[in-house]
Design goal:
Layout lengths: L3 E5 L3 H12 L3 E5 L11 E4 L2 E4 L8 H9 L11 E3 L4 E6 L2 E5 L3 H11 L3 H23 L13 H4 L9 H8 L3 H8 L18 H8 L3 E3 L4 H13 L3 E3 L4 E7 L2 E7 L2 E4 L2 E4 L3 H6 L10 H6 L5 E9 L9 E4 L4 H9 L10 E4 L14 E9 L7 H19 L7 E7 L1 H8 L31 E3 L10 H18 L1
Parallel strand pairs: 1-2, 1-13, 2-9, 6-15, 13-19
Antiparallel strand pairs: 3-4, 5-8, 6-7, 10-11, 11-12, 14-17, 14-18, 15-16, 16-17
Helix pairs in contact: 1-9, 1-15, 2-15, 3-4, 4-8
Amino acid sequence: MKKDIKIIGSGFSALSAACYLAKNGHNVTVLEKNESIGGRARQLKKEGFTFDMGPSWYWMPDVFDRFFADFGKKTTDYYQLIKLNPAYRVYYGINDFITIADNLEEIISDFESIEKGSGSLLRDFIGEAKSNYGIAIKDLVYRPGVSPLELITLETAKKVGQFFSNISKDVRKKFKSQRLIQILEFPVLFLGAKPSDTPSFYSFMNYADFGMGTWHPKTGMFDVVRAMESLALELGVTFRTNANVEKINIHNNKVKSLIINGQEIEADVVLSGADYHHTETLLDQKYRAYSEEYWNSRVFAPSSLLFYVGFNKKIKNISHHALFFDVDFNQHAKDIYDDPKWPEEPLFYANFPSITDATAAPVGMESGFFLVPLAPGINDTEELREQYFDKIIDRFELLTEQSVKKNIIFKSSFCKNDFVSEYNSYKGNAYGMANTLLQTAFLRPKLKSKKVENLYFTGQLTVPGPGVPPALISGKLVSELIEKYS
């Protein structure tokens, strides 16, 4: 039966759900509070430079392929992919870095050159990670988190021990070099938790990294947003921007309408791709499924301090993606999770898309994106932002042996306060709720409201978790629940 479905937000999970629901014949409207769609994956254009404002890593290409295949399409119908070589660099000192190649054999060889015997250990480790990846994609992540029985299959039963150990322990059993350990622990940071709090099974992220490679849509991650928007429009989805949802009205424990910019709009089904906690504040107290105490007790992924920087020259000694691990990795993690505060010596990530994409910057110039992970809920001021930009740019100049400060045309920042104001993000988190053992699958907030009929949720605070590929999957899962129950 055709239903009038209103979707709050226009991030990847909302766009995914919109496509599936429209394909099933429903009347779908996407409501976005900001001026442009994409949620955290919006685009910034300034003085001839173009930046992806949020996600910048394209991993797990098979998930994107599967999404478009569900509609009889291919990714190549909408955008082109470039496999990055090198995938990224990890800096440890002055012009001292490890380059991650675009193929496993070369990576194995590089590991062996750093630590004798580590090459064969890495081959075995990635073999196990590949097995986990196959199980995750086949048996786990495409399940809606309704029941613990979803986790019980013949294949997962063989892996049960991996849910009670963690990535940090497993990596340290095999490898002694701190450099290699940090490289192997890095991918699980996309899941939002410390490696020591991330179950061993999630090593499948290492296969996504070394086995499948790092890709870049030809003109940036916003290519994927545009592609999903185009597909949605083909399927009949309506988009409304500058549409701020202020209230969800309930009648007889069932969704009745939304208040949008002061105007009441009726709906048969409401699906929120916005922040889960924020969405529940749009309900009267008695209809909220999760208390403030619940949210405060959860482990959230970090917030971030981001800088979008335009340089009037090409930058040397750098790759498209670069990680700066020249300071204490563990101390920075403690400053995020154990004793939340601004890190004295921050790790940071830099991305120079104009190395790959000529449209990202004017000729002869460079676009730079810098990210410092921070504790959610942290104090955020302009003075602190400036202080930390100076910290990271000084280190960047030192480690890459060049002067760049005087070549900055402009810089724009985005931090915790902006995540709250722009995305209604709980405590200004950037990536959602971490995938720890007690926040996995059926233990995450539910896709279907437990208290309100025809109210649903999707995105990084629910199933299957943080990241762009999981967001696409979340949209599919919730659309299936809507078909089943509404």
